[in-house]
């Protein structure tokens, strides 16, 4: 048995679709008795939504940039969470104030604290609960907070700033115009 793992956005999913050739290759790989999984910054809900959309079967998922590892489409095998003090520090950071939204994610949880009406997340059709700043501060069982900006350069600048200010406590991962922040380690 062999194991193959792929990133999702920009790797397996390109130009908003998964190619027929890639779908066939995954199916052939798994039929041959090998395992296939994804490693992504997305949360499991967003990931499973996409897997179901493209009818892709997986043996494992690494979501939240590694802060959640799953057996198939569930259950959780291992994970890390943001403690409440770190959630408060991230939401109070200037990177949050500059972001068009703060997406707070955990297993089965997607909360959206809207900072700006330019946010593209509401148009995706993904299920989320819009929350106030106070409700965002009270959120628990989170694995990742994501910020979104107008440009990749702006995202890169805020990624560096988060790393400098909170780097001993967080892992900020830039993904084009977004930053996914997970607990250090």
Q: What would your notes on this structure say?
A:
With 185 residues, the chain is of the alpha+beta class. Helix content is 31%, strand content 30%. The chain contains six helices and 13 strands. Strands 10-9-8-11-13-12 form a six-stranded mixed sheet, with helices on one face. Strands 1-4-5-6-7 form a five-stranded mixed sheet. The protein is globular. The two termini are 29 Å apart.
Key features?
single chain; 185 residues; alpha+beta; six-stranded mixed sheet; five-stranded mixed sheet; 6 helices
Topology of this protein?
Blueprint: E1 3-6, E2 13-14, E3 17-18, H1 20-31, E4 35-39, H2 44-54, E5 60-63, E6 68-71, E7 76-79, H3 84-92, H4 94-98, E8 101-106, E9 109-114, E10 129-130, H5 133-138, E11 144-148, H6 152-166, E12 170-175, E13 178-183
Parallel strand pairs: 1-4, 4-5, 9-10
Antiparallel strand pairs: 2-3, 5-6, 6-7, 8-9, 8-11, 11-13, 12-13
């Amino acid at each position: 048995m062999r194991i193959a793992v792929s990133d999702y956005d920009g790797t397996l999913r390109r130009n908003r679709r998964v190619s027929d050739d890639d779908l066939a290759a995954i199916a052939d790989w798994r039929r041959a008795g090998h395992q296939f999984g994804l490693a992504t910054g997305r949360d499991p809900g967003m990931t499973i939504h996409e897997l179901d959309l493209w009818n892709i079967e997986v043996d494992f998922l690494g979501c939240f940039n590694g802060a959640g590892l799953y057996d198939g489409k569930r259950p959780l095998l291992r994970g890390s969470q943001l403690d409440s003090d770190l959630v408060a520090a991230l939401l109070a950071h200037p990177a949050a104030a500059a972001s068009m939204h703060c997406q707070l994610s955990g297993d089965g949880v997607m909360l959206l604290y809207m900072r700006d009406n330019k946010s593209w997340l509401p148009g995706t059709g993904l299920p989320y609960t819009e929350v106030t700043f106070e409700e965002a501060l009270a959120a628990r069982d989170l694995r990742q907070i994501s910020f979104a900006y107008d440009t990749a350069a702006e995202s890169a600048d805020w990624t560096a700033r988060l790393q400098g200010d909170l780097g001993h406590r967080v892992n900020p991962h830039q993904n084009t115009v977004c930053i996914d922040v997970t607990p250090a380690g």
